[in-house]
Amino acid sequence: MRHEAILVVRFCSAAEAEIAERSLAPDNHPLPPYLNLGVERRGENLVYKVACNDRPLQTLLSTLDDILRALLIVEPIICENRGEDAERRRV
Q: Rounded to an integer, what distance in angstroms lies between the CA atom of residue 11 and that of residue 55?
């Protein structure tokens, strides 16, 4: 059986989406043979396409959970940098 999911994550800007994509890219390799993962950047959105073959649905859900947890780690760093950039522009 094949299970598929699409996860769309919106950032405040295309630059932030790029930083997040580049930050998480090393986590995407190597993948087990039963897992397919694609990431597209569409403006301020990251679109994750995940497919899992011949595994229980829980495998797909665990993969999505891993992606979300990694994004939760990256997001405060990106937002923190955004705040610093805004502060510099005010000075």
A: 31
Residue 43 pLDDT greater than 70, yes or no: yes
Question: Alpha-carbon Rg of the chain, whole angstroms?
Answer: 15
- Write down all domains in the chain, each with its CATH number in brackets: 2-90 (3.30.310.50)
User: Tokens standing for 76?
Assistant: 């405060």
DSSP 28-67: G-SPPTTEEEEEEEETTEEEEEEEEESS-HHHHHHHHHHH
pLDDT tens per residue, range 54-87: 999 999 999 999 999 999 998 888 876 665 554 5
